[in-house]
Amino acid sequence: MARRSRRLAGEGHDLRPFIINLNIKLETIKHDYLVSSLENTKLRQELKMQEDIFGRELAFLDAQIKTVEIERDFDAKWLGIEMKRLQKMIDDVKSWTSLMKEKVPEAVKKEQELGKSLQAEYKSLIKENVKEAVERNGEAFSWQTCSICVTKYSTEQEHTPRILDCGHTLCLGCCRNFVKGKKLTCPFDRQEIALEGNIKNITINRYVLNFC
Ligand SMILES: [Zn+2]
Ligand SMILES: [Zn+2]
């Protein structure tokens, strides 16, 4: 090359600036190549990193999906069991209700009938006892008779014994004679008793009535 340069120089052409220029260009290209190859490597690394991240995220998502699927299956199973359980409860309540609808009125009716027959038996026993006692005494007991009108109490409305708030008893017919406005004055102790609604609402003295 040196010889050739000399020869070329001898021909009067100075090629050195041209060569220097070429060398500079070459260096620039080398540098650019190096930079670009470095950048390439960097890009590749980044790409690899991104791929890794992406891969991990994909795996994570996959796992998530599987978990959700498992949970969904579990939920579906649990829901199925729960629904069956609730349905059974509803069925039980329904059948129990229909059974009760059938049985309760029957039982209540039986109880009422028993109560009625016991009450009737009790009343007839008492009446018999009282009747015997009256026959022995020759006259009715004083408490069987209204002290005002001296009439025997009976189930006939006007002769039913009525107990006042003061505790005294007299027949409904007599009660009417002691009413003034909304008040009834007890003939035995002059206590004023407020009437609530109809005079017929004064409580019947069933204890006395049972013995009449
Ligand atoms: Zn009376
Ligand atoms: Zn009284």
TrEMBL record:
One GO molecular-function entry: zinc ion binding
InterPro entries: E3_ubiquitin-ligase_RING (IPR052667), Znf-RING_euk (IPR027370), Znf_RING (IPR001841), Znf_RING/FYVE/PHD (IPR013083)
Gene3D superfamilies to which the protein is assigned, alphabetical: Zinc/RING finger domain, C3HC4 (zinc finger)
Alphabetical keyword list: Metal-binding, Zinc, Zinc-finger
RING-type domain span: 146-190
Superkingdom in the source lineage: Eukaryota
Pfam families linked to this entry: zf-RING_UBOX
Entry protein name: RING-type domain-containing protein
